[in-house]
Fold each of these.
Amino acid sequence: DIQMTQSPSSLSASIGDRVTFTCRASQSISSNLNWYQQKPGKAPKLLIYAASTLQSGVPSRFSGSGSGTEFTLTISSLQPEDFATYYCQQSYNIPRTFTPRTFGQGTKVEI
Amino acid sequence: QVHLVESGGGVVQPGRSLRLSCAASGFLFSSYAMHWVRQAPGKGLEWVAVIWYDGSLKYYVDSVKGRFTISRDNSKNMLYLQMSSLRADDTGVYYCAREDLVGGYTWFDSWGQGTLVTVSS
């Protein structure tokens, strides 16, 4: 299975900060990388799909980049509602083979 | 509006069985692959199982193979997860999720609110 590693596992930031975190895949996954935000007691929410496409309704301060094995999620100006845990997830598909979907371990953004 | 509602969670003894359900509405259920994803208390997300839109293919994470069975009833817009031989490490919140597919890329665009399964004696 493809392993996903996020860094850092947590970070402290202030309102207005630009924050960036990284997700690395154990093998190339092209652009088959998605980002989710999860707040305590809530279901995950899709932010970015296909590495860099912003999901409808998600603020433009969120952006994603990368391909192959290294990806980043950037929040350009941190807002109070952005304090949450962020997960990357790979959805690499090999023709006629299902690749188990795997998540990174998460990055918790704290004040 | 897409709506997914899980049910069936609860407290169960090790070795026993439990069936989770996920009621879908607001979209053409029979056109989408559906997944179960779980989250142990205080831990990250773990993909559990997928079923193809027509039920023809099913895949599982290694840790539940032979113990869990995913199924669906497209006539009722329902997704199920039959869990047997439950273990303490199966404890967690179980989410159903819809997988969207465009241009060869897939992602989980809709999630239920989750149902808590606690395996304990």
Amino acid sequence: SQTIHQWPATLVQPVGSPLSLECTVEGTSNPNLYWYRQAAGRGLQLLFYSVGIGQISSEVPQNLSASRPQDRQFILSSKKLLLSDSGFYLCAWNPGTSADTQYFGPGTRLTVL
Amino acid sequence: AQTVTQSQPEMSVQEAETVTLSCTYDTSENNYYLFWYKQPPSRQMILVIRQEAYKQQNATENRFSVNFQKAAKSFSLKISDSQLGDTAMYFCAFMRGNNDMRFGAGTRLTVKP
């Protein structure tokens, strides 16, 4: 069966510091991968998605970037965090047929102080 | 652009009773997919039910069923025999075949004993 992991689970970072959140999927090949952000009490906003190694599409211009160095690894980064980057970050995957259900990881709670 | 509207920010229901959560969406597409996700206090997003727009038959999953009205662009979720474990945020989501999934703002459901 497929599983999706995210780490760290929680993170507290000062403004201006760098960020690296990692997401990995097990039990599947060539998945589509997604990064979402959820602000407090709000729905999910798609940040990035990837259909293959090195292929990243950005949905929202922002302080963040994403990379996919391996087939089942998706990384969310920032060089300098802003207060507005605080939120709950969710990684998701689907089998590669673009209209398939997305399955979510446990998320990372990021607080920028 | 596709938008998803959940007009009920909060709802409550007595244990064992039935509750219906509303969702409307706006699109000019003919082929798309609709989803209901549940987000319990752990904040993991869990798929509840999925509906393909080209199917007229409403999807069901055990105690969960939908009322899909394509012409009205309505996709409501009915939870029968509500259980305490159903307490969560519920998100309606719309997806086309281009990795573009849009979420509503969510409905907070509380099941009361």
